[in-house]
Design brief:
This protein is of the alpha/beta class. The protein is built from 13 helices and 18 strands. Strands 1, 2, 9, 10, 11, 12 and 18 form a seven-stranded mixed β-sheet that branches. The chain has a seven-stranded mixed β-sheet with strand order 7-6-14-15-16-13-17, sandwiched between helices. A two-stranded antiparallel ribbon has the order 3-4. Helix 1 runs parallel beside helix 8 (202-208), helix 1 (11-22) packs parallel to helix 13 and helix 5 (143-149) crosses helix 7. Bound molecules: flavin-adenine dinucleotide. FAD binds at residues 31-32, 219.
Length: 421
């Protein structure tokens, strides 16, 4: 019998299990898929290193700092600026202190009116003051409403905030909660963005290093009785004192009867390889030409180890799940890339993979936080983890794992205390 069974080996479950194991508990993690990581995974295809979709790590995430040995992730910092592309024209917009190479372009570009550049500096000063968690409190509104209240022009919204933060929220309309905008803005100021050299999968791999994880085991029911919970799985039954449910929202609702339903934000990724360098840009490329491409990144320019020697790797992000037919989607993306690189060069690109991810995040509209479920469930001994208790992202998932583990440890202490103590 395990002291604690954790269901789901995503970042939430692995973080919870690691905290508990380090506190001396016998923990077993059960994962339905054939690999760990949940939505954070990395695969090798023909020598190219591909993450599940385009994901980056913000090293300033407090839970990352608390739980991970960041130096062992071998992080490659990404430039703190993006390139805004309109046809053949490419303007750099970014943080002139963190990315001095983009200073002149950021100052010169007419995409961002001078007053808006000053407003970005003012916003940075304003958001630097509070503790990061304080930015997630207070009255809420959409990111668009918030930016307009800060005086930003439509040009700033359309040329920078929608394409850049649309890539983080996976929604271009800036309808996402302004609390999250402020939090991510601050995370970017504090630590920029980075990619683990060997892929985002290095994050769950590090968390799982000392854990007992069984893969390919799907949990189907939880049956609390007395001071134990029987965990019914595709591979039989086992008993535990406590169970942490760290699955997706729908499975959590099925297993615990908690109201966890959140909805889904989807995205699609196309990976291209090239034997010649079409672009020497290391920065994320934002598309202002319209069409399906939201952004694109030459991953091998930023992290050369992501492609075999002499080869180049491009990932294109498309928001949502357009065009059911992969060939038709590929043809549309190639036509759009031709506006940047010319059709002859684009013909030389090879399509390595088309990946559709129906569930990347859950939607986080203003006031979403007030509707989130807590960690407690109606089942005795069963605690909820997962980003659905917090915010959709790496910080939210890991922090929820930490909190679920703390609740279980607290409960164990209460149980082991002599009566009346
Ligand atoms: C394309 C994409 C881009 C993203 N970009 C970013 C980003 O840039 N920054 C950021 O912070 N976040 C980003 N995210 C979000 C981030 O990856 C997730 O918020 C986080 O990984 C969620 O972790 P989790 O553990 O809560 O859930 P999950 O990763 O979904 O893990 C749940 C696990 O439970 C398992 N499971 C489900 N049912 C059962 C069952 N019955 N029995 C056993 N196991 C079960 C699943 O197989 C899965 O492994 C992105 C996500 C995607 C997909």
């Amino acid at each position: 019998m395990a002291d604690v069974v954790v269901i789901g080996a995503g970042l939430a479950g692995l973080t919870a299990a690691r905290v508990l194991a380090r506190a001396g508990q016998r923990v077993r993690v059960l994962e339905a898929a054939t690999e760990i990581g949940g939505r954070v995974r990395t695969h090798e295809i023909e020598g190219f290193t591909l993450d599940a979709g385009y994901q980056v790590l913000f090293p300033a995430y407090p839970a990352v700092r608390r739980q991970l040995n960041v130096s062992e992730l071998d992080l490659v910092p990404l430039p703190s600026a993006a390139v805004v592309r309109r046809g053949a024209q490419a303007d750099v917009i970014g943080d002139p202190i963190r990315d001095p190479g983009g200073l002149l372009s950021t100052l010169r570009t007419n995409l961002l009116p001078a007053l808006d550049k000053a407003r970005v500096a003012k916003l940075a000063l304003q958001l630097r003051g509070p503790e990061p968690w304080q930015l997630l409190r207070g009255p809420d509104e959409s990111t668009e409403q918030y930016l307009k209240r800060q005086g930003f022009s439509d040009a700033a919204l359309n040329h920078f905030f929608r394409p850049f933060f649309g890539g983080i929220f996976l929604k271009r309309d800036l309808s996402t909660s302004a609390r999250l905008f402020r939090y991510y803005f601050r995370m970017l100021m504090d630590g920029g963005a980075a990619l683990p050299r060997r892929g985002m999968g290095a994050i769950p791999a590090q968390l799982a290093a000392e854990l007992d994880v069984s893969i390919g085991v799907r949990v189907t029911r939880l049956l609390p009785h007395g001071r134990h919970v029987t965990v019914v799985t595709s591979a039989g039954e086992l008993d535990a004192d406590h169970v942490i449910v760290a699955t997706d929202a729908d499975t959590a609702a099925h297993l615990t009867q908690a109201d966890t339903a959140r909805g889904q934000v989807s995205s699609t990724y196309l990976y291209y390889t090239s034997p010649s360098r079409l672009d020497d840009q290391e920065r994320l490329i934002l598309n202002l030409d319209g069409g399906l491409i939201h952004n694109a990144h030459w991953l091998s320019n930023a992290v050369p180890e992501r492609a075999p020697a002499g080869q180049h790797l491009l990932v294109v992000t498309v928001l949502g799940l357009p065009e059911r037919d992969n060939q038709a989607l590929d043809a549309r993306i190639r036509a759009e890339l031709s506006r940047w690189y010319g059709s002859l060069d684009v013909q030389r690109l090879r399509t390595l993979k088309v990946e559709r991810l129906p569930f990347a995040q859950y939607p986080q509209l203003p006031e979403y936080a007030s509707t989130l479920p807590g960690h407690a469930t109606d089942l005795p001994g069963v605690v909820l983890a997962s980003e659905v208790t917090s915010m959709s992202g790496i910080q939210g998932a890991m922090e929820s794992g930490e909190k679920a583990a703390a609740i279980v440890l607290d409960d164990l202490q209460v149980l082991s205390r002599p009566r009346g103590a």
